[in-house]
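Q: Convert this sequence to structure tokens.
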Amino acid sequence: MSDVLLEVQDLTVHFPVYGGLMLRRTGEVRAVDGVSLTLHRGETLGLVGESGCGKTTVGRAIINILRAMSYGVEITGRVLYHHESGVIDLASLNRTAMRPYRADIQMVFQDPYSSLNPRKTVGQIVEEPLTIHTRATPAERRERVRWLLEKVGLSSHQVDRYPHEFSGGQRQRIGIARALATNPKIVIADEPVSALDVSVQAQVINLLQDLQQELGLSYVFISHDLSVVRHISDRIAVMYFGKIVEMGQADQIYANPQHAYSKTLLAAAPRPDPSSARARRLSSGGKR
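A:
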């Protein structure tokens, strides 16, 4: 079996713009313009770029939820999922036809505060995908929920608590547990640490890496922070204005970027350098 798990071929996503009293279509926003990429089994592909470049739209197109989110969206190109039964073009499937493959591709959303239903307990949130996509009994689902919470570093005794009783990092762990509930092959991580404190970011990144090694997951890791992407990714794709302008091994992109935009992203990333900070203090007459 080929190690290719997912292929995105010439993906374009255009959102209509409506205006005037009659709300007629006056234009369109080209959010994604001819993106092609490949994801291998067990690999982490980092998708990096500034806000508004279209990287989140690519992630949502892969899991085929854009048509349900935005009326009139135009999607062309192919999203080929290499399933055990054959190669499936996810982009061509309607909601009903997509359902058998939904369990294999899950998403961890950016905002851990708005992505969890505040009216449901943690146990209900994590159990919901199991109820929809599996035939497990209620007892089996409850046991699976407890196992998942323990796996992401939470306590199984917290199943009856509500999201507002948890910190941001803990909520993101709940989101990860929900994404893993159906034993997915692919996880789309849409800026999963951007809303968290720096110390908590490292914990969540390490958790994702541990889960990948243990469960054999493949990630599409979306972020605007090239240093975070480099830490977790095997390969990096740099997006700019809806296009991929550079792609390569993570260390290669970081050490020797070829495109001017990649160089700009690297230059904008803060790099801790204690010796440089000390030199600045000395030159300005500060204390040693």
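The longest strand covers residues 24-40.
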